[in-house]
Amino acid sequence: GIQVEQSPPDLILQEGANSTLRCNFSDSVNNLQWFHQNPWGQLINLFYIPSGTKQNGRLSATTVATERYSLLYISSSQTTDSGVYFCAVDPPRSLGTGTASKLTFGTGTRLQVTL
Amino acid sequence: KAGVTQTPRYLIKTRGQQVTLSCSPISGHRSVSWYQQTPGQGLQFLFEYFSETQRNKGNFPGRFSGRQFSNSRSEMNVSTLELGDSALYLCASSPRASGGGGANVLTFGAGSRLTVL
After folding, report:
1. What percent of chain B has pLDDT over 90?
2. pLDDT at B1
3. Hey, is the C-beta of B8 within 8 angstroms of any chain A C-beta?
4. CB contacts < 8 Å between A and B, how many?
């Protein structure tokens, strides 16, 4: 199946700093989402971005599908940004083929933002 | 509109018991999928349901089962609980089944945290 690797595994930032999180995947994808898992365990959808660039406030993401990677940018980080960031992908397939339909998650980047 | 609702949020069981978890998707969403999260294995796909049909199942033993009702609500059941089943179980809903073309954003619930003693 498709492999998803995220880097770095851990990141400590001072409040106000910027950061870039990376997601590499081993096959073409139909769906790529970035999630933030808060301390209570809920996965919050940040971006649906199988290709291109999107921005939402201090966060932005870019996926270069031809080179099989995605980047999540966090600018002017705040303590509330702390948590684990996951990249998840779903390769394209035809409906009705009976093949697996699922998101494959990376191992995540654990971010800690300190004062 | 209301998000994905999972119940119960926390539960404690003992080995050998069974458990049923419930997931109510976002109104209008017809696809529900389940994931297990553990510190050792990370987030792993359990199964996906669409229009009351299981579309596929992850690599889990037969003790893990699920179903979807006509209103798209879903339940998953784990029988003969083992210590290793302790995990956060996450449910996600999406407008349609994954794998086809076009955007299909998954929205997750807050999860059900199961502890097996």
Report:
1. 75
2. 65
3. no
4. 76
